[in-house]
Each structure stands twice: as C-alpha cells, then as structure tokens.
C-alpha cells in the first residue's frame, strides 16, 4: 500500500512538471512571438530614423540655400539703398563729391590700417560703388608701394585657386591678416596701462581716445577704470567725485576740468585793476567817439609871433653889414686866409716832429 501511494505521488509530481514545462513552453512561445514583434518594430524604427536623417540632410541643404539667398537679397537691398540715397530724389545731386582717401603703402600700423579701411568703406558707400567685384577693384587702386605688390601676389593666388577674394569684406580680412602687426592688440593694451597724465589734460584725453580705437573689445568698465587711473591726483579726485557711469561721461568731466584750468591760468595773469593814466585814456576815448566836425584840434605853437614888434634888422656877425653871413662879400677872403693859416701851422708841426 505504501508503494502504491508513492507511485501516485510520483505520478502527480511528474504531471506537475509536465504542466510547468507546458506553461513555460507557452511562455517561451509568447516571448519569442513578442521578440519577433519587437524586431519588426525595430526594423520599422530604423527605417523611420533613416528617413529622418535623409530629411535632416535635405533641410540642411535647403537652409544653406536659403542663407545664400538671404545674403544675395541683403546685397541687393544695400545696393538699392545706395541708389536711393545717392540719386533717388529730384532735388538731390546724382553723386556726392567726396575726396578720395589717401593711399595705403603697406605700413604695419594697426591704427593706419583701421583708418584706411574705414575711409575706403565710407568712400565706396558715398560714391555709390555697387557690385562686389567693383568694390574690390576700387579699394585695390587705393594701394601703393608694398601694398600693391601684396595685391599682385594675391591676384595670382586667386587665378590659381589658392584663395578667393570676392567681396570687400574678404579684401579687408586678407589685408588685415597680412599687414596687421602681430600682438597689436596686446601692444595697445600695454600702451593703455602705461599712459599717464603728465602734461595737458586735454592732450591726455585725446591720446586716450585714439588708443581706445585700437582696443574695441575691451570692457566698458575697464576703459573707464584705466582712464581714471592714468589721471593726476587732483584730476582723478575731481572725476571720481562726479561718479561717471560711462567713459563718455568721464571725457565730459575731464574736458570741463581742462576748460576750468585754462580760465584759472588766464585770470592769474590778468591785471586786477586797469591803469587810469590820469584820465587821459578816457578823454581820448570820448574824443574818438565825437564826430570829426565837433572835435577841437589843439595845435602846439613852437614859435610865438608878436604882431606889434618892429621889423627885424638883418646884421652880419662877420662884418657887421646889413646882410646875412652867407651873402657877405668878405667871406671868401676870410675863408682863404683861414685855410692858409691852417696849412702853415701843419707844416710847422711836421718840422718839429722830424
């Protein structure tokens, strides 16, 4: 009986194992089916990703084309604006008479290069030079010396396809790259730090303003601080007392201080009281204001004439005759005698000397 009970238990355990295996087989089948579905979904997702990548590339190409079109439209817009500004109205001249900028000879000075390109840009705008190629050629004729040699080499590089200079912006970039001195910005920063107010306050302001053109990327607060630190103690105290918020405000305060200093210097050497000259200056001024017909001209008499006196009697002091000395008939004989006397006296002195 124990054996039959053991067999029944064993049979029951086998049946459970069979049931569990069947259940696991069904679960594995479901998992395999789900995995297959997931593989199909992954294939679909991969296809969608490929489509998105292709669409992104297409959009990138379209965006690039649109950007190029926008640049062309901007160029056309600037051209139209120049046409309107130069000769758009009936009451405006067809062309602005502008003096041609001075030519650039290849000097390796950052300020000279910046000033040259600034003037050329304004010249092209005011003259209404349109078209990128024409702008580049117009800028090129304003070169001389080493700059012309550089441009000729660049033309050869353009023909060989080594570089491209299609616009005036490209021209500026290439010119700066070749002629701009190395460490120009660092040198400008060094000059800003070393600049000190030693002479005229107005001269210091002018030099500092020129230096600021060489450091356009400097922070506004740094520009203000360096300007104040370079001032003399008295000027620095006055500027700090005004509490300027910008560099332009500090310039205005410094200019006012320079004007005040100049007025004080002028007043220091100005006489406190005007000389009166005994009232003669005021009298002359009053006489000058009077009309010429009302002026009383006083003439100083050097000789007093007495109308009641008798006629003067002429008398020669040489011979007591009634004539003048220059009319005396005895004057010739007396002059001859005097001359002979002088000659005899000279002769006697000569003999004594020997």
Automatic annotation (TrEMBL):
Instruction: Report whether Flavoprotein shows up as a keyword of the record.
Output: no
Against Pfam families, the record matches this protein to: Ty3_capsid
Cross-referenced InterPro entries, in alphabetical order?
Ty3_capsid (IPR045358)
Q: Where is the composition biased (Basic and acidic residues)?
A: 273-304
* Domain of life the protein comes from: Eukaryota
Q: Residue ranges under compositional bias (Polar residues)? A: 335-347
Residues that span the membrane, as ranges:
none
Where is the stretch described as Disordered?
262-304, 327-354
Domain Ty3 transposon capsid-like protein: start-end pairs: 98-268
The UniProt keyword set, sorted, is: Coiled coil
This one is known as Ty3 transposon capsid-like protein domain-containing protein
Organism equals Nymphaea colorata (pocket water lily)
């Amino acid at each position: 009986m124990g054996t039959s009970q053991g067999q029944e238990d064993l049979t029951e355990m086998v049946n459970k194992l069979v049931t569990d295996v069947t259940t696991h087989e069904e679960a594995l089948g479901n998992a395999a089916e789900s995995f297959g579905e997931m593989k199909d979904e992954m294939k679909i997702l991969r296809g969608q990703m490929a489509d998105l990548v292709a669409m992104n590339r297409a959009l990138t190409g379209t965006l690039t084309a649109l950007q190029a079109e926008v640049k062309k439209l901007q160029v056309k817009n600037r051209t139209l604006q120049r046409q309107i500004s130069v000769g758009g109205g009936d009451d405006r001249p067809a062309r602005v008479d502008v003096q041609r900028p001075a030519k650039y000879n290849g000097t390796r000075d950052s300020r000279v290069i910046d000033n040259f390109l600034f003037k050329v840009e304004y010249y092209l705008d005011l003259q209404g030079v349109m078209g990128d190629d024409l702008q580049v050629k117009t800028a090129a004729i304003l070169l001389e010396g080493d700059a012309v040699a550089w441009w000729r080499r660049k033309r050869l590089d353009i023909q060989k396809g080594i570089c491209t200079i299609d616009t005036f912006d490209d021209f500026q970039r290439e010119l700066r790259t070749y002629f701009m001195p190395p460490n120009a910005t660092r040198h400008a920063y060094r000059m800003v730090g070393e600049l000190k107010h030693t002479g005229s306050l107005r001269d210091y302001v002018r030099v500092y303003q020129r230096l600021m053109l060489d450091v356009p990327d400097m922070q506004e607060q740094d520009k203000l601080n360096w300007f104040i630190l370079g001032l003399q103690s008295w000027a620095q105290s006055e500027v700090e007392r005004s509490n300027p918020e910008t560099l332009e405000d500090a310039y205005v305060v410094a200019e006012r201080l320079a004007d005040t200093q100049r007025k004080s210097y002028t007043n220091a050497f100005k006489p406190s009281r005007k000389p009166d000259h005994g009232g003669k200056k005021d009298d002359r001024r009053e006489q000058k204001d009077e009309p010429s017909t009302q002026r009383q001209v006083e003439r100083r008499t050097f000789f007093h004439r007495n109308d009641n006196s008798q006629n003067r009697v002429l008398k020669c002091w040489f011979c007591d005759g009634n004539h003048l000395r220059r009319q005396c008939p005895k004057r010739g004989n007396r002059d001859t005698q005097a001359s002979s006397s002088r000659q005899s006296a000279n002769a006697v002195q000569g003999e004594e000397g020997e």
